[in-house]
Design brief:
The protein is mainly beta.
């Protein structure tokens, strides 16, 4: 009995050691770590193992004055700590946490890393072990991202992960670039990046985490330690025929300040900015602001070509950017973004177009030499005030000024000179307050306004007369919104109540033309006021997920047109539902389906009634009557995202139709093109099929991508006063991309792209063309040398007697070991292709056009890293 009581007393007096074991870089818990308790002589007295969350607990005896606690796991370096035991206090719990570093072992000059997967998925975060995918040819972050499975980078720099849009690129979890993240991905040196994380279900507002399910994705760049205080690079290059390149990039990271700045100049066709004036792609920031911006009729499109921008861009480009996040204190931080962009682009174009309609043919030739000079100044700020752990106040603002001066001379039955000037000034400011009521509920308030003014002038000088066109588009936008969000284990809902107001002013005057059948001026006012309630509900049960969205609006529309004396003022009530159903077969694959009904308001550039001239032969106007445009859309698909086996697959089908919309009427003569948008009943239908496949073969370090789509589009138009034409366009796109990453000196990439377009209509006429492109790159790395050959072959139409074009580029770099200097030799367009000919075919025309290219150049540069 006495022995039993002594044993009870001993157990009651026992003490406890507990803690958590995590990785030192990512902070992620490490399971299955052995925790060893030893006495002062090194004898083992107890042990335990961490669970899936990295936690452990061990009982100890009070009779010991001190303990040695050690970790043991093959994948990480061992650590030990000394614990002094308090004999007086009974049943005390000691907390001892560990941060472990990954184990690296060196045997006979062979670099061995513990068995670590190239990709690890931890909840919503996909972690890339980038050393498994790099081959040494990566210059900037964008080059690195292109080699990571699941990530794709478009020609305009926009990134997607698993097919979802990447909205932010972070530096060590800090957002300093906002939506214009290409400033970072196109300029940050890939060597200072230690890891890459893709974060799904990303919310810019941290208080919405675990409350609002998001389709957005962020890419987090983990910087190498020791490279973060102040680092950067400077590249200076000179070449034949006055070619030049200058790049200066600096990144600075401290406890209070994190920033990146870049400065560049080049005339070799490169673009290190988010702005693009050679294609029709929007930069990311403008995509997010389309609702707040108005229309730029004169400079709404870039140069027409299917070649990469660096081949068609004959430029003189300057770009500077400062991006900084300053943490004033633990509650307040301030972010600043400033961009300056200036360029001079030159282009020589020659068009030969044959129009076929009403059993007649019309041939038109047009020659034009163009000079375009854009100038951009953009300033943005974010003020973030963390009031407390449950309250966040943010204020964001932007001032964006863009000026484009364009001059051109040419011949279209007579000589002409075209002078246009467009200025685009956009100002916005938003304030948002977020209050997290509890772990399951958030309340938000939002207020914002913006104004956008775009004055434009067009001056056309012909041999016998002169045309002057003045245009002024202006838009004011205002929004108030309150929102409550809540989430439980199986359901999630969001209720928003708000008010939208936007007004548009359109003024224009055309001087120098006599046309009694057309209005030559515009004076319009177009307002929409919207009181809305939005409701989103999600529910999960077993393998099913149901999502319902209802956007309910009470609209007041007012439209005044002095030309037609129209005075339209009406109220509408609309419901726009969206229903989605997802069925998850397992953690990596699911079926998905969506139905949506949307009501689109008429676009501003489709409502004015008077003629507007945009160049030497193009006029626009509209035959407008107000109506809401309903669009019904249904999609079905199946997706696999298996990162354990590095495999992705997606197939989908989408069908949409409109019963009311725009019908384009096109009237062409030898000297003019008239485009008129008519609001009417339509039969517009769109059916598309998509298949995407990606497989990374780990033992070969190689990736295979296959992307294909097939689209059938039904639409209507009127050509030169014809009857209504019912047209069908069938488009097939296919792409096969293979990229190797062998552990050898030699690697290659090859991308094959094929496109086929077919047009037919109810007049029994049809046309088609097929294009082919092949990009091949071979890379050779040996010691300090890197040699790359890049070839591109373009065949604009496989059915026409137009020869294909082959381009050849060579890059050579030399970087001595333990040196911060790199020598680079760049030789582009070695075959010196000066002109590119292409073909465009539509349902009523065939156009063969040619334009100049960036000529052959050789550039030698030196890069200094610090």
């Amino acid at each position: 009995m006495a022995l039993f009581l002594i044993s009870i007393a001993h157990c009651l007096s026992q003490q406890m050691v507990e803690g958590i074991v995590v990785e030192d870089l990512s902070g992620e818990p490490i399971p299955f770590v052995n925790i060893l308790i030893k006495n002062g002589e090194g004898n083992l007295i107890n042990f335990s193992t961490t669970d899936d969350n990295g936690n452990y607990s061990i009982r100890i005896s009070k009779d010991l004055d001190s303990l040695f606690i050690e970790t043991s796991i093959i994948s990480h370096l061992a650590k030990s700590k000394i614990l002094l035991v308090d004999k007086i206090q009974k049943n005390k719990v000691y907390t001892v946490n560990f941060k472990l570093s990954q184990r690296l072992t060196e045997l006979d000059e062979i670099y061995i890393e513990s068995d670590k997967r190239p990709i690890t998925v931890k909840k919503d975060t996909t972690v890339y072990n980038i050393n498994q995918f790099k081959d040494g040819s990566e210059s900037v972050v964008e080059d690195l991202l292109k080699k990571l499975p699941g990530i794709s980078v478009g020609d305009n720099g926009i990134i997607k992960f698993k097919g979802k849009q990447v909205v932010r690129v972070l530096l060590d979890n800090d957002n300093i670039f906002d939506s214009n993240y290409t400033i970072g991905t196109k300029n940050i040196d890939s060597e200072i990046i230690e890891g890459v994380q893709a974060i799904e279900d990303y919310n810019v507002n941290p208080l919405l985490k675990d409350i609002k399910t998001s389709e957005d994705v962020a890419i987090n760049l983990i910087l190498k330690k020791g490279k973060t205080d102040l680092s950067g690079n400077t590249q200076i290059g000179f070449g034949l025929k006055d070619k030049a390149l200058l790049k200066v990039n600096t990144i600075s990271v401290s406890k209070k300040l994190k920033g990146f700045s870049t400065l560049s100049y080049n005339n070799i066709g490169e673009n290190y900015s988010p702005y693009n004036f050679t294609s029709n792609a929007f930069e990311m920031s403008k995509i997010n602001e389309l609702e707040q911006r108005t229309t730029n009729l004169v400079n709404s499109s870039g140069f027409n070509s299917n070649l990469p921008n660096n081949r068609i861009s004959v430029n003189n480009n300057f770009f500077g950017s400062i991006n900084a996040l300053y943490k004033i204190n633990r509650k307040v931080s301030f972010k600043l973004n400033y961009n300056l962009f200036k360029d001079k682009l030159t282009r020589n174009e020659l068009y030969n177009t044959i129009y076929t309609f009403n059993n007649e043919a019309l041939s038109i030739s047009n020659k034009e030499d163009i000079s375009k000079k854009p100038l951009i100044n953009t300033f943005g700020y974010d003020l973030i005030y963390n009031i407390n752990k449950n309250s966040l106040l943010t204020s964001t603002g932007k001032w964006d000024s863009q000026t484009i001066n364009k001059t051109s001379t040419g011949f279209n039955n007579s000589n002409f000179e075209n002078i246009t000037k467009s200025k685009d000034v956009f100002v916005k400011n938003n304030i948002e307050y977020t209050y997290r009521i509890n772990d399951k509920k958030v309340l938000q308030f939002f207020g914002g306004f913006s104004t956008n003014n775009i004055p434009q002038n067009v001056d056309i000088l012909f041999e016998s007369n002169e045309l002057k066109q003045a245009i002024d588009f202006k838009k004011n936008y205002f929004k108030l919104q309150s929102k409550i969000l809540s989430k439980t284990n199986k359901s999630e809902y969001e209720i928003a109540l708000g008010y939208n107001f936007n007004e548009n002013f359109i003024d224009s005057e055309l001087i120098g033309i006599n046309n009694s059948n057309q209005y030559l001026t515009n004076n319009m006012y177009y307002k929409s006021a919207n009181l809305f309630t939005n409701f989103i509900f999600q529910y999960k049960i077993k393998k099913w997920q149901f999502i319902a969205k209802f956007n309910n609006s009470t609209l007041n529309i007012k439209l005044n047109d002095l030309n037609t004396l129209a005075n339209y003022n009406e109220n509408f009530f609309t419901i726009q539902p969206t229903f989605s159903i997802n069925y998850y077969l397992n953690k990596t694959s699911h079926f998905y389906s969506t139905y949506s009904l949307t009501n689109q308001l008429p676009e501003v550039h489709k409502i004015y009634s008077g003629l507007i001239l945009t160049n030497n032969r193009t006029f626009f106007n509209n035959n407008f009557k107000f109506n809401l445009f309903n669009k019904n859309s249904v999609s079905l698909g199946y997706r696999i995202n298996d990162f354990y086996n590095l495999f992705q697959f997606n197939t989908s089908a989408t069908y949409s139709f409109r019963k009311y919309g725009y019908i384009n009427q096109f009237n062409v003569t030898e000297n003019t093109d008239f485009y008129t948008s008519i609001v009417s009943s339509t039969n517009n239908k769109n059916l598309s099929f998509n298949v995407d496949f990606e497989k990374y073969i780990h033992f070969l370090k190689s990736t295979i991508n296959i992307n294909s789509s097939y689209t059938i589009l039904n639409y209507q138009n009127i050509i030169n006063n014809s009857q209504l034409r019912d047209n069908t366009n069938k488009n097939l796109l296919g792409q096969v991309y293979i990229r190797t990453g062998f552990q050898s000196h030699l690697n290659f990439e090859n991308k094959i792209m094929f496109s086929n377009n077919n047009y037919s209509n109810n007049y029994n006429s049809s046309s088609s063309f097929s294009s082919f492109q092949n990009d091949f790159k071979i890379k050779y790395l040996k010691d300090d040398f890197q040699f790359t050959i890049n070839s591109q072959f373009f065949k604009p139409d496989l059915n026409q007697n137009i020869s294909g074009d082959l381009f050849l580029d060579v890059n050579l770099s030399y970087s001595p070991k333990n040196s911060k200097i790199e020598y680079l030799l760049k030789a582009n367009n070695l075959l010196n292709k000066k002109i590119y000919r292409n073909i465009n075919i539509s349902d009523f025309s065939t156009s063969i056009f040619q334009h100049n290219l960036q000529k052959r150049f050789i550039l030698f540069s030196i890069q200094f890293k610090y």
